[in-house]
């Protein structure tokens, strides 16, 4: 994933800065990510943006709270919600981990 330098700085920056920028974003996914705590944003920055990791895999391995939040605040609010992704993100962590292991990493 290729992001401009200022976007990387905001993702890894202090919470007050990211939340301020979040309020000006029209994209629900960007707004959601910028409203998360700094450690989660940094994890995304290092593993997905800089590390070339898979965004879906990264999300599925997050805590139940993070996954439910993304499903409720981003996916469910879409004009055409991805019901399969919403269902998967609402599953317990063990189910999501087995999906990553048996489907994405297979």
From TrEMBL:
Protein known as: Uncharacterized protein
Phylogenetic classification of the source organism: Bacteria, Bacillati, Actinomycetota, Thermoleophilia, Solirubrobacterales
């Amino acid at each position: 994933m290729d992001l401009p330098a200022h976007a990387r700085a905001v993702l890894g920056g202090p919470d007050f800065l990211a939340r301020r920028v979040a309020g000006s974003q029209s994209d629900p996914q960007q707004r959601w990510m910028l409203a998360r705590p700094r450690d989660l944003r940094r994890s995304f920055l290092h593993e997905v943006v800089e590390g070339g990791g898979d965004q879906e895999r990264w999300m599925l391995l997050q805590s139940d709270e993070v996954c439910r939040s993304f499903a409720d605040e981003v996916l469910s609010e879409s004009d055409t919600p991805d019901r399969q992704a919403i269902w998967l993100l609402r599953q317990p962590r063990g189910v999501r981990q087995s999906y990553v292991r048996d489907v994405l990493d297979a």
